[in-house]
Every structure is written in C-alpha cells, then in structure tokens.
Amino acid sequence: EEMGDKGVLGNTITYCAAISACEKGGQWQRALQLMEHMHEKGVPANTITYSAAISACEKGRKWQKALQLMEEMRETGVPANTITYNAAISACEKGRQWQRALQLMEEM
User: Fold this and answer.
1) Which of 12, 63, 55, 62 is nearest to 34 (CA)?
2) Domain hosting residue 47, numbered range
3) Which of 36, 49, 61, 74 has a CB 3.0–4.6 Å from the CB of 45, allowing a cystine?
4) What span, in angstroms and rounded, lies between the C-alpha atoms of 86 and 58?
5) 68, 80 contact by CB (below 8 A)
6) For a pLDDT cut of 90, what percent of the chain falls above it?
7) For the chain, which ranges sit under pLDDT 50?
8) Which of 63, 107, 108 is nearest to 88 (CA)?
9) What is the CATH number of the domain that holds 8?
10) Residue 108's pLDDT is what?
11) Domains in the chain: how many in total?
12) Rounded Cα–Cα distance for residues 23 and 41 (Å)
C-alpha cells in the first residue's frame, strides 16, 4: 500500500518478496491478502508466488486454503514444483489430512 501511495507499482517480483516475508514471519493472512491484491491489480502470480503463499498457509495450519491455492494454480496454468508440493503436503499433514497428502504425492 505504501509503495502504491508513493507511485511505485508492484510487479510479480515485489509481490513474491512481500509474500515470502509474510510467510517467514508467520503472517499467513497478510500473505493471502497480498495474493488477492495481486489478482485485483492484474499482476500475474508465478510458481514462486504460489509456493510462498502455500507455505504461509502450511505454517498457519490452513490446509484447506493451501489446497485451494493448488487448485487455482491448475486452473490458471501455473506449474507446481517440488517446493509447492512439499508445502501443500506439509499443510495437509499438519491438518491430519493424510489421504489428501497421499493424493498430492501421487500427482507429483
């Protein structure tokens, strides 16, 4: 928000950095807000962006949201990588969703 107030436009790289910082700081809600803000501004998300957001969900024990983000990736054609899958599987594990975790492992 501050960047926008100062006339600095966010791009995929700046959003990735901010979402990663939120993930590392345990701010999963803020990470998801930034993802939403990206979509609103028409800034394309990439694998790294989604991976950071899914990892933030994992740390926040929000396995459902992590799986929603995985589905969003499929729908928008953004490829998942090992880091993405590991974060989603870990989110399922923390949510005691072992069957979903196994499904993700099979997808890899």
Assistant:
1) 12
2) 2-107
3) 49
4) 10
5) no
6) 80
7) none
8) 63
9) 1.25.40.10
10) 86
11) 1
12) 21
